[in-house]
Design goal:
alpha/beta, seven-stranded parallel β-sheet, about 15% strand, elongated, tRNA_m1G_MTases_N, methyltransferase activity
Length: about 220
């Protein structure tokens, strides 16, 4: 449960404009779709995917780091790491198990004989969109466990796009369609409260000192 008094205490420190922006952005956030990237070797691509998630309203990004340890490229993410939840996994199986337990269908974004064109994709089901490495694509484990396959229509000679470009195109298309639909795609009231608290803490300098002061003044909490 969220400590509403603590939330009010922190938000009282923020400007009215920032609090208003939080509510406006949260109104368009969703967990109906989530994104997963697998062993993306070039770090800036993972960061760019995170930025696309933030811009188009995807709240969670799942990062599988089975082979390559990474850190977020803050220059590329441009602060997106403060507003998007990053779930890290050290194995493909761990990520798949976690997402399936949350009710997501696994969608591999890769050319495949049973694939679905982007504009024809059924957006009604909660879906985890998987993007693979630049050179090798998605692993066999993900392909074998996929519930569906999705690709971007292309009419040129080039057969593939950079992962960050592919992610941006797919996320933008699907979230636009989602917001025009009557699907219940928004965050729950409890999820919104959690994000308001997280974002308030991320916005306040010296949050540890301020938090300590709050609990000192409210020992019953």
């Amino acid at each position: 449960m969220i400590d509403l008094d603590y939330l009010a205490f922190l938000e009282n420190i923020l400007t009215e404009n920032r609090k208003s922006n939080f509510l406006k952005v949260l109104e368009n956030r969703t967990k109906h779709f989530t994104v997963a990237v697998e062993d993306v070797y070039q770090m800036h691509n993972t960061s760019a995917v995170m930025r696309s998630c933030e811009v188009f309203g995807i709240q969670e990004l799942n990062v599988i780091e089975q082979r390559f340890g990474k850190r977020i490229d803050k220059e590329i993410a441009l602060g997106a790491q403060k507003w998007v939840d990053i779930n890290r996994f050290d194995s493909v199986s761990g990520c798949l198990s976690d997402l399936k337990s949350k009710g997501y269908q696994i969608i591999a974004t890769t050319p495949h004989e049973q694939d679905c064109m982007l504009e024809d994709f059924d957006i009604s089901k909660p879906s985890a969109l998987f993007f693979g490495t630049e050179k090798e694509g998605l692993s066999k484990e993900i392909m074998d466990n996929a519930d569906g396959f999705l690709k971007i229509p292309m009419v040129g000679f080039t057969e593939s796009l950079n992962i960050s470009v592919s992610a941006a195109i797919i996320i933008q298309s699907l979230t636009n369609r989602l917001r025009r639909s009557d699907i219940d795609w928004k965050l729950s009231e409890e999820e919104i409260l959690v994000k308001r608290l997280d974002w308030a803490k991320n916005s306040i300098k010296d949050i540890k000192r301020i938090e300590a002061r709050y609990y000192q003044d409210n020992p019953q909490v």
